[in-house]
Structure formats: C-alpha cells, structure tokens
Amino acid sequence: MTDAHTVENPVPTPLIRSYRELMSVSGNRALSTALTLHAVTGFFEGLALLAFLPLAQTLGTGESAWGMTTTGWLISLGVLAVLAFVVRYVEALVGYRAAGDFIQSAHRTIGDALAKLPLGWFDRRRAGGISSLVSHQFMSAGEGVAHLLPALVSGFSTLLTVVAGLWVFDWRLGLIITVLAPLTILLLWVSQRIKKAIDARTHAAAAEVSSRIVEFAACQPALRAAGRSHGFTPLEDAAAEDARSQYRSLWISSGALALGAVSVQLLVTSGIIVSGLLALDGALPPLVIVAFIGIMLRFAITLQNLSNSVVGIEMGRIPLRQAREILTAETLPEIETASPLPTPGEIEFDRVSFGYSPETRVLEDFSMRIPAGTMTAVVGASGSGKSTAASLIARFWDVDSGTVRVGGTDIRDMPTSQLMAQLTMVFQDVYLFNDSLWSNIAMSDPEATDAEVFAAAELAGVTTIAEVLPEGWQTVVGEGGRSLSGGERQRVSIARALLKKAPIVLFDEATSALDAENEANVLRSVDALRKTSTVLVIAHKLETVRRADHIVVLDGAGGIAEEGTHEALFTSGRRYRDFWDRRAAAQGWRLTAT
Ligand SMILES: Nc1ncnc2c1ncn2[C@@H]1O[C@H](COP(=O)(O)OP(=O)(O)OP(=O)(O)O)[C@@H](O)[C@H]1O
Ligand SMILES: [Mg+2]
C-alpha cells in the first residue's frame, strides 16, 4: 500500500533547495544570478561603509591613508555608490524574473505532480489545502524570492564585509565588533523565539474559538431541538481561554520586542563606550571613532533587518513544505504499454488485503469474482469497506497483498488509460465541473451526438433537473456542482455512465432517500447499464439489491459473510435476512413471495 498521504519530511530541506525544486531551468539560473548579485551588492555596501574610516583618518590627520588622500577616498566612495546602484538595479530585474518564474513554475510543477498521484490521495481536506496553496501561499513565497532573499543575502554579505574590513583597518575595532555582534544576534534570536512561541499559542487558541463557532453554528438544529441554544459550553470555554492567552501574549510579546530593541541598543552603546575609551587613550583619532560609531549604527540596523527577514523566510517555509509533500508523495508505478485483456468486463479480487494505515485493515484476504455482463450487489454495514473495494478496482490505492484483476489482467499491469477506459464510476460523493449541465454529461464521450447525450440524460432523470433550472441545459452548475443537490449530482453522474458505455460500471448508490420518480429513474438506468456492462453496485435500496444476479454481504471484518442470489440468501442467509428486514422496516416495506 502507498501511504503517501502520511509521509512527513522530518528533516527540514534547505530553503533555497525547496525553492529551486519548484522552478524551471531558466528560473534556477536567474535565481543563481540574483543570489550572486545580492551578495555583490552587500559586499559593495559594506565597502562603502568601510571607506568612511580611511576618509575620516585623512580628514583628521591631513595625511594620506593607504596611499590615497581625502579626495581619493571621496572619489572611491562615489564610485562605490554608483556601482552599488547599478548592481542593485540589475539584481532587482533578475530577482523579479526569478520570483515570476517561481510562481509560474510552481503551479505547473505541482499540477504535473498532482496528475501522477494515486486517485485516493485526493480527499476533501486535501482539495481545500491545495487550493489555498496554489492561490495565495505561492504568491507570498514568490515575494520571498523577490524581497526577503535579497535582504537576507545582501545583509549577510554586508555584515561579513564590514567585520573583515574592520579587522584589516584596525584589529581593535575588529575585536569590538566580533565580540559584540554575536551577543546581539543571540539576544535578537531569543526575542524572536519568544515571540514565535507565544504567537503559536495565541494562534492555536484563536483557531479553537473559530472552529467552536463553526461547530456552534453548524449544530444549531441539534442544539435548538435539544433546547440548548444558549450557553454552549465548549464555545464559552474556548473564548475564555482565547481571552486569557491574548492577554498573556500581549505582555510577553511586548517584553520580547523590548529585548530585541535593547539588544541593538546594547551593541551601539557598548561600541560607543569602548571605542570612546580608545579615543581618549589616543589610540585612534577621534574622527575615526565617529566614523566607527556611524558604521556600528548601520551595522545594527542591518542586523535587525536580517533578523526580520529570517522570520519572513520561516513563514514562507510552510507552503514550500506542503509543496514538497506533494512532490515527494509516492506515485503508483505505472507501465506504458497496453496488452489485450483476456476477459474484458470481468472483475476479480484475489485474496486482497488492504488498509488505509498499517494498523487497521479494511479488507482481509478478500476474494470475489464478478463475471462479465453480470450485476453484483455488495451490501454490508457502514464502514465495512464497500466503497473501499470499489475504489481499489479503479486503483485509487494499490493493495497491500493479493491482486485486483480487471478484464483478467492485474490492474498494476495495465496503463491507467487502459484501466479507465474499462470503467465508469458513479460515486456517493460526486464532484461536477463548473460548466453547463449539458457539458458535464457530454464530457464522458466527446464523440456522442446530441441525441445520444439527450437520451442518456433522459434515462437518468436529468431532463427534469434541466427543466427547472433558469438556463436549462446551459445552466452552469457551480464549483463541484454546488448548485445541485447530492441526488441530482448523482443523476448527472449516472447519465455520464450511460453515455460512456464502459465495459464495467462501479455504482456507489446514494444513501439518501429518493422520491418515487427518481427511484424509478435510477432503477431504469441500472437496467440499461446492465445490458451493456458488468455492474458492481454498492446498494442501499432494496429494489436495486433484488435486481442483482449475485449478492455479496460483507462481514465487517474485511471478508465476506454470505453470498448468493436474493432468493437463496433470503431464505438461508442470516445476515442478509437481517439486513433486509431492517431496511424493509425503515422503508415500510413488506416482502411477499417473489
Ligand atoms: N480515505 C480514507 N482514509 C482513511 N480511512 C478511510 C478512508 N476512506 C475510508 N476509510 C475507512 O475505511 C473503512 C471502510 O470505509 P468505506 O468507505 O469503504 O465503508 P463503506 O462500507 O463504504 O461505508 P458506507 O456504507 O458508510 O459508505 C472505514 O473505517 C473508514 O473510516
Ligand atoms: Mg461507502
């Protein structure tokens, strides 16, 4: 089995690599160039800062420093400023190109990766996550490439240049900054950690309140029915905890902010004191010390900016981690060439075991053969694995052991396209395209004539839906088919199946009660489908069950309790009889001899 959906990457991937994985070749090149340019800008900015020292020295002493007079140093400063400007400009252009490439390629890379993932990977929770990932989260990660990476790389390069330059200029100044800077960095880091920890706590409390509010709203019918529309304890508790944590967070994060500010002040003040002492000692000219203090101030600002960029980059990691989860998810191995199927239309489970996680098995040593052209109904308690069995036929997941065969061939030995050509699926939870009602049906056979689409729609009872919609067949059904009811969506899906006429139909019948007319539509459709295809129906309605050539009753422990025809099971199958009686009572049915 593939447990791709539970794969977590325990080791954080280097940030730049996570970006690179999502970018095109040319984007990667642009990113490399941009990173180099960021480093070069930082270097020039560092040099420009350092140039103030010899400049101050020549001004103070009237002698030349390192072979250049005041004018020489002024000119060098000017040249450095121009160079820094030019590099900044080019770097911004390249950086934006890299950022644009990231956003574009990330979408494409994720799209390609999604197309290869096992169908079972996609559940509702995931669909929501992916949509927020590719919409605004990738945008903000892209901004990281354009703004945060430059600040980080060039800031770091400036700091290194300044430290190295100070050592070269005068070892005492080098020593001061080398001792003070790590202390400041440590304090800044501590302040960020505190802030992050407290933010996470407040976030959790706020999230708890908002989910309790959703729960409160969603459970209104149940709460009111129970006469408890006031004083919903979980919500009140969560709100109180949220208020407490907000209050606490205000105190602690003010402290953390103060610590951050103090750490920078500390760097500057201690720098001023120590270098001032050096000046009083006459070890260094006063003007040089003034220049040094200026450099310290600038150094402190760069340090603070750097620490802010690190925070921003940390936030940008979240979408990158999610993207990585998609990129590294296990795909189902697939073969390229299709071989002819020995027995088209046949389905076989051969000692299949499967579970969504290693601890819990849904199917255990499960065997069942459905000959071509027959109709089999699978019944069993909720959660007994009926839908799971159907999804294994469509290879949503690979089995842990045993074999699923379609048309006599192991489904792992055929290309997805060949397997999909064999099947149509009508599932409980149907997702429609945000397109017209008509196109949603016609998509299953692009070759079909209008008359054929209409006939399928009519049989499945979609015509009655079209009649009441404002724009008839051309009404757009909304994302996922939101503007239709669950039963209506399933009818559209049945019409698709009728049109496609695939050799095998997997039908997971809706559990919701249908009105008499719709029930008749579904039954008529099933009758039509069994004329052209092998039908496997996960049945809830007694009429559907009774129609099947063969009935399989699951035991709820991963295997089959009983199987046979309706007549045989009705007289001798204990579980089947039990199932039947309970359903019949619920539906107000009485079965007379058939
Ligand atoms: N995507 C999934 N991930 C993890 N567990 C799952 C997943 N889908 C189903 N399960 C679990 O597998 C078991 C079998 O579920 P399945 O949907 O096959 O039952 P079912 O017989 O179709 O039930 P129902 O009649 O309610 O539709 C259940 O315990 C369910 O919670
Ligand atoms: Mg089910």
UniProtKB/TrEMBL annotation:
Question: May I have one GO cellular component term?
Answer: plasma membrane
Q: Which domain of life is it from?
A: Bacteria
PROSITE patterns, per database record? ABC_TM1F (PS50929), ABC_TRANSPORTER_1 (PS00211), ABC_TRANSPORTER_2 (PS50893)
**How does it sit in the bilayer?**
Multi-pass membrane protein
Could you tell me which Gene3D superfamilies the record lists for this protein?
ABC transporter type 1, transmembrane domain, P-loop containing nucleotide triphosphate hydrolases
Q: Name one GO molecular function term.
A: ABC-type transporter activity
Primary localisation category: membrane
Q: Where in the cell is it found?
A: Cell inner membrane
Q: Which residues lie in coiled coils?
A: none
* UniProt keyword terms in alphabetical order: ATP-binding, Cell inner membrane, Cell membrane, Membrane, Nucleotide-binding, Transmembrane, Transmembrane helix, Transport
Q: What is this protein called?
A: ABC transporter
Q: Which organism does this record belong to? A: Brevibacterium aurantiacum
